[in-house]
Write a structure and sequence with these properties.
The chain is α/β, with parallel strands linked by helices. The chain contains nine helices and eight strands. A six-stranded mixed β-sheet has the order 3-6-5-4-7-8. A two-stranded antiparallel ribbon has the order 1-2. A hairpin with a 2-residue loop joins strand 7 and strand 8. The protein is globular. It starts with a strand and ends in a 9-residue tail after the last helix.
Length: 271
């Protein structure tokens, strides 16, 4: 900001302009300096590769482990039932996703063309599994005695069955709202699955997480990314080949690159 000033000299009155920063301009300048310094510090202590979750999909602990837990799934949309032949003979793309989750839906919308092209191959099986915001859990507190110790009497097995039945009853009351949420996601994000399954007690997702944790303990050189939503698992003949957990802009292209060779298809044929 420029200010006009006058100065009386022997030759008369002289007029001049001077640049003076206003308080607002000064605060903006301080903010820019702060952001610049913060960015430099962030890059020093957190390498760029760490800011983006770019873990190699073939280094996830689940890779080379058997794909398990299909028995926990139930159809949500469509009539297709799962069989042993699906697990043993097909190339499976398993998708854990939440129809209420914006990131999951945008990710799947990006992959829609890849899915459609892959489904032209009879050896490919797309297995999308939808989840609640939070899935019903078995209440372990029901197995505790009054003195807060684990109940080990002969009634424990009966109590477990009672808990599982109660949790399933609660879960199936949520089946219709979950189906509606899936249909709304299709409309909003412009993608579609002919068949969708769900995991009423999240048992399949938890079984994969348990396997990953066990393998990760034995192989500390592998990084455990977890089973987040979304997570996409690529398996062939029942064995996991690659895992993408969460989202990164490079994942859609990576998935296409890994999937098509397993189907003897060329990624470049995809639009």
């Amino acid at each position: 900001m420029k200010f006009l000033s006058f100065q009386i000299t022997d030759s008369g009155i002289e007029k001049s302009f001077s640049n003076v920063s206003s308080p607002r301009e000064s605060s903006w300048g301080n903010l820019l300096v702060f952001l610049l310094i913060s960015g430099i510090v962030l890059l020093i202590f957190f390498p760029f590769s760490k800011l983006w979750n770019t873990d190699n999909p073939t280094e996830h602990p689940l890779v080379n482990a058997p794909l398990s837990g299909l028995e926990y799934l139930a159809p949500l949309l469509g009539e297709t039932s799962l069989s042993e032949s699906v697990l043993n003979e097909k190339t499976i793309l398993l998708i854990f996703w939440g129809p209420w989750d914006d990131q999951s839906c945008r990710f799947l919308a990006e992959l829609n063309k890849t899915f459609n092209e892959a489904q032209k191959n009879e050896s490919f099986f797309l297995l999308p599994v939808a989840y609640f915001v939070s899935s019903p859990k078995l209440n372990e507190n029901l197995l505790m005695t009054e003195d807060n110790t684990q109940n080990t009497d002969e009634n424990t097995a009966e109590n477990e069955k009672t808990m599982e039945k109660a949790a399933l009853e609660f879960a199936y009351r949520q089946e219709s709202p979950l189906r509606t949420s899936v249909e709304q996601a299709f409309q909003k994000y412009s993608f579609f699955f002919t068949n969708v399954w769900w995991d009423p007690l999240a048992q399949m997702r938890e079984s994969q997480q348990s396997i990953a944790m066990h393998i990760n303990t034995e192989n500390s050189n592998k990084t455990l990314s977890g089973i987040a939503l979304p997570t996409i698992i690529l398996a062939k003949h029942g064995i996991i080949h690659a895992v993408w957990s969460g989202y990164h802009p490079q994942y859609p292209e990576e998935i296409k690159t890994y999937l098509m060779p397993l189907l003897n298809m060329t990624p470049s044929k995809l639009p």
